[in-house]
């Protein structure tokens, strides 16, 4: 797939403070990338540079092949930006708000009427079309903002904390919307603090800390790469002494947990395995040969929080 | 295939009518009762003023024709004074908030990421702010025209005064807009706009009042009188300073018309020099039109700039 966002050696300094330090990142077309990091890590700065709102101190960034510094108009044509604040005109009606921004993007008048209805359907605000923006709830305003970013049918959506400040229901609705946009083929580059949401929607993540990119890639691959060992859970019928003996003899088990001491049910053993897939398969084969009544044998995947905690050091909070 | 062609002469007008910023701002400004209430109250005030002046004429009259002309002139000057206040003080008040309010409600960044050009943004803001001012000014022209019934005012006086008001509203509106693009808050933009407007409207006459007598005293009462060309230079300096100030320009242009019957200039002899003395109104137009163009260009540049912070 083609690269749609390319960031090369991007640096931004505010006086003595370095907000971004030689950031390099590539985002593939159609990908949904979660941009995560602690507060002050440089996420918003990166997004403001990508959306042509801020000039970098050094380095280059390209969106759909256009330089954000040298071709801002072309970049604006292909991006839809939603900042981490509402940015709505309270004294406008919902349809007027969308009509205004569509006109700002040069959408012809004849196309706008149908397009506004489509966008309102997408964000489930059709029934609020004639209402004033100020009467909308926070979640509705956020959805309206998202609809605004789609007014000119951009290739790339850059969303800064799209779910921040929303109640759980509105957050779920926002997540569903992003999923829908993903199916429409949009490239979504969004920042978030809520790791579980990022994990649910994203195809890949980029973790930023103190202005530096410390990890980037496919979520599953990253989980594997960042784990030095694998956590396996085994359940057998009856006693586990023989199993434990075999695991110790294999020489590949770093730590073993079994019994009430570890709050595990009877017949369950959990262990850290340092071998590869082949060695794990051999171990399972040996147990089966020894006629151990195995009920389940599975690898625990861990979650994004593990990855995040592993790679970040809490420099910025 | 059929094609429709629009005269390029009117393309700018069509673009202005379709400018999303103009439409949005006008829609917001004229929505609700506020705009209509303000217009009604303003017209009632002007009507009241005209009624008082006319009553003064109707009640006391020894020489009716002279009195009629004087009343006509009073009506004209009184309404012109109110219109001048609108042009000078209301237009920067409207425009000074136009960009800072976008910054304050955090919509400025959204606008800057759209394809709306800085020129369209600025023009839209300016047109919507000034159109309301012009509406207020034009709404009083019929009342001002009563002066023609009573006499004492020529059409050219009305025309010149309205032209001066329009260019003043444009220039001061653009001043407010420029400062709005420069500042972060509406308060800062409004205060700095008023400071500059007050300097141009009040500061310059005060400065002239204090410095010119002092200079002439120094030059013309010394033992040796300065050469004649100095007096000519001083006349031109006074003319240039006067042409920076709206009240001075309105008064001086009226004097030129009524006393010298001069629309553009008259020729006078100072010492042994024949001097062409220009009517200040068109110098004022020239200065403030150039000033407006510069401010328009500077504001677009400011909005276009990708900031470092």
Key words describing this protein structure:
heterodimer; A: 317 residues; alpha/beta; Rossmann fold; Alpha-Beta Plaits; 2 domains; six-stranded mixed sheet; B: 309 residues; 2 strands
Q: Give the low-confidence spans of chain A.
A: none
CATH class of the largest domain in chain A: Alpha Beta
N-to-C order of helices and strands of chain B: HHHHHHHHHHHHEEH
Spatial ordering of strands, largest sheet of chain A: 6-7-8-3-9-10
Mean pLDDT of chain B: 88
Please provide a written account of the structure.
The complex is a heterodimer of chains A (317) and B (309). With 317 residues, chain A is an alpha/beta fold. Chain A has 2 domains: 3-224, 3-Layer(aba) Sandwich (Rossmann fold); 227-302, Alpha-Beta Plaits (2-Layer Sandwich), CATH 3.30.70.260. Helices cover 36% and strands 29% of the residues of chain A. Chain A contains 11 helices and 14 strands. In chain A, strands 6-7-8-3-9-10 form a 6-stranded mixed beta sheet, sandwiched between helices. Chain A has a 4-stranded antiparallel beta sheet with strand order 2-1-4-5, covered by helices on one side. Chain B folds into 2 domains: 11-199; 204-282, no CATH class. In chain B, helix 4 runs parallel beside helix 9. The radius of gyration of chain B is 23 Å and the shape is globular. Chain B has a two-stranded antiparallel sheet with strand order 1-2. The mean pLDDT of chain B is 88. In chain B, a hairpin with a 2-residue loop joins strand 1 and strand 2. Chain B is mainly alpha-helical and 309 residues long. Classes of the chains: A alpha/beta (317), B mainly alpha (309). Chains A and B meet through helix 2 and helix 3 of A and helix 2 and helix 5 of B.
């Amino acid at each position: 797939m083609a690269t749609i966002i390319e960031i090369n050696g991007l640096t931004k300094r505010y006086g003595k403070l370095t907000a971004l330090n030689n950031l390099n990142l590539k985002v593939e077309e159609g990908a949904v990338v979660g941009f995560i990091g602690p507060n002050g890590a440089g996420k918003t700065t990166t997004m403001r540079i990508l959306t042509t709102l801020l000039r970098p101190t050094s380095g280059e960034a390209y969106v759909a092949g256009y330089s954000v510094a040298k071709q801002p108009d072309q970049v604006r044509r292909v991006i839809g930006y939603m900042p981490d604040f509402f940015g709505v005109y309270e004294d406008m009606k919902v349809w007027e708000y969308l009509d205004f921004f569509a006109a700002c993007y040069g959408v012809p008048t004849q196309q706008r009427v149908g397009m506004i209805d489509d966008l309102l359907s997408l964000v489930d605000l059709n029934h609020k079309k004639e209402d004033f923006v100020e009467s909308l709830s926070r979640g509705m305003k956020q959805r309206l903002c998202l609809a605004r970013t789609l007014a000119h049918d951009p290739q790339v959506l850059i969303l800064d904390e799209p779910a921040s400040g929303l109640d759980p229901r509105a957050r779920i609705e926002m997540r569903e919307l992003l999923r829908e946009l993903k199916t429409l083929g949009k490239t979504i580059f969004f920042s978030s603090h809520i790791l579980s949401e990022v994990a649910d929607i994203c195809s890949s993540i980029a973790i930023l800390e103190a202005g530096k990119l410390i990890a980037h890639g496919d979520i599953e691959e990253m989980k594997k790469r960042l784990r030095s060992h694998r956590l396996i859970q085994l359940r057998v019928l009856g006693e586990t002494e023989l199993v434990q003996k075999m695991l110790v003899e294999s020489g590949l088990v770093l730590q073993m947990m079994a019994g009430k001491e570890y709050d595990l049910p009877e017949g369950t053993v959990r262990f850290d395995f340092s071998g590869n897939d082949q060695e794990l398969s051999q171990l399972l084969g040996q147990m089966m040969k020894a006629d151990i009544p195995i009920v389940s044998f599975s690898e625990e995947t861990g979650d994004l929080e593990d990855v995040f905690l592993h790679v970040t050091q809490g420099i910025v909070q | 295939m059929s094609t429709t062609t629009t005269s390029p002469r009117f393309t700018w007008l069509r673009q202005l009518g379709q400018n999303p910023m103009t439409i949005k701002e006008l829609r917001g400004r004229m929505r609700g009762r506020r705009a209509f209430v303000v217009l009604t109250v303003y017209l009632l005030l002007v009507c009241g003023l005209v009624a008082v002046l006319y009553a003064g004429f109707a009640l006391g009259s020894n020489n009716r024709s002279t009195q009629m002309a004087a009343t006509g002139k009073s009506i004209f000057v009184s309404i012109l004074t109110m219109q001048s206040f609108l042009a000078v003080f209301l237009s920067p008040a409207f425009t000074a908030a136009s960009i800072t309010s976008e910054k304050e409600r955090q919509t400025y960044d959204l606008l800057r990421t759209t394809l709306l050009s800085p020129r369209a943004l600025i023009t839209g803001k300016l047109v919507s702010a000034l159109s309301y001012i012009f509406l207020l000014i034009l709404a009083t022209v019929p009342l001002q025209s009563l002066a023609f019934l009573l006499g004492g005012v020529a059409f050219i006086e009305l025309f010149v005064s309205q032209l001066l008001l329009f260019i003043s509203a444009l220039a001061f509106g653009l001043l407010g807009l420029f400062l709005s693009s420069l500042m972060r808050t509406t308060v800062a933009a409004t205060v700095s706009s008023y400071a500059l407007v007050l300097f141009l409207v009040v500061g310059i006459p005060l400065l002239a009042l204090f410095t010119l007598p002092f200079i002439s005293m120094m030059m013309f009462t010394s033992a040796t009188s300065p050469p004649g060309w100095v007096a000519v230079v001083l006349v031109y300096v006074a003319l240039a300073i006067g042409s920076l100030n709206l009240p001075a320009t309105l008064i001086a242009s009226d004097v030129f018309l009524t006393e010298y019957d001069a629309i553009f200039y008259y020729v006078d002899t100072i010492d042994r020099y024949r001097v062409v003395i220009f009517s200040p109104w068109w110098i004022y137009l020239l200065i403030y039109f150039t000033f407006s163009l510069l401010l328009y260009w500077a504001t677009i540049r400011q909005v276009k700039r990708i900031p470092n912070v």
